[in-house]
Write a structure and sequence with these properties.
This protein is an alpha+beta fold and 79 residues long. Helices cover 58% and strands 14% of the residues. β1 and β2 form a beta hairpin.
Length: 79
């Protein structure tokens, strides 16, 4: 990675600053970009897995929260 700035003609110029002190642009190599983008992007399989998990959690928690209520109603009806 390289710290660069834009000069007056609009071209990129290497500043030579450390990345921690860089206050303009940082150029990233193609291999680094590909590596980061692979882990940042969401594939359709990941999205469907997340949605399926969310729906399953809602259904299971809905069942678990309504089951004691059903038991209480059955006890009250028997009294």
């Amino acid at each position: 990675m390289i710290c660069v700035s834009v000069n007056q003609q609009g071209f990129l110029k290497v500043t030579g600053q450390d990345l921690e002190a860089c206050n303009s642009y940082v150029l990233v190599s193609k291999s680094d970009y590909d590596y980061w983008f692979e882990y940042i992007s969401v594939s359709p399989a990941d999205a469907s897995l997340a949605i399926g998990f969310g729906v399953s959690v809602i259904l299971v928690l809905g069942f678990l929260s309504s089951y004691p209520i059903k038991l209480a109603l059955n006890v009250i009806r028997k009294l």
